[in-house]
Design a protein that fits this description.
Shape: elongated
Number of helices: 6
Number of strands: 2
Radius of gyration: 24 Å
Strand content: under 5%
Distance between the termini: 42 Å
Largest sheet: 2 strands, antiparallel
Length: about 170
């Protein structure tokens, strides 16, 4: 392989790895099963095609690129922790939906339990705030502090869990 060929291939691989790095998140392998391989293949082929079109490299007749999938955690339902009420209902519904999409694995159990518990906590705070929007304090009538706490729980706990599990965009 000529130095120009090696340079073009190195550039293509670097570009592909850049795409992979952009898509890497906390659970990249579980979330990008099919798209990751496709993105790498497209980036490599585009870079090589561009280098060949511009005469930077000659297409070697014996070149054979084969990308293999990285080792992945197989999809499957995680073991359900002891949950009750809203958390249990949410667990069952979320596991069913994520299994249908093929983007949940046994190792996701902790993250999913955290999401379900925080979601149930958020729902309970909203319910308490709706039942009694104003509360009497020594200083007089005030907005129920459950409202502010519900906002905080949703922003700091529920939303990050949804992003980690792939339930919403980042």
């Amino acid at each position: 392989m000529k130095p120009a060929d090696a340079e073009a291939v190195a550039h293509a691989i670097t570009a592909a790895l850049g795409i992979v790095e952009q898509r890497r998140g906390k659970k990249a392998q579980a979330r990008w099963r099919g798209n990751l391989k496709e993105a790498v293949e497209i980036a490599v082929l585009k870079a090589l095609s561009s280098a060949i079109d511009h005469g930077a490299v000659e297409y070697p007749e014996d070149l054979h690129l084969e990308l293999v999938d990285p080792p992945l955690v197989p999809p499957g339902a995680p073991h359900r922790p002891p949950l009750k009420g809203v958390a249990l209902l949410l667990w069952n519904e979320t596991v069913r939906e994520l299994l249908a999409l093929g983007i949940i694995a046994k190792i996701d159990g902790g993250a999913l339990a955290n999401y379900c518990l925080n979601f149930a906590r958020w729902a309970a705070l909203l319910s308490a705030a709706a039942a009694e929007p104003l509360v009497m304090t020594r200083a007089g009538l005030r907005v129920n502090p459950a409202i502010a706490e519900a906002r905080r729980v949703h922003k700091d706990c529920v939303q990050p869990s949804e992003i980690e599990l792939g339930l919403r965009g980042g």
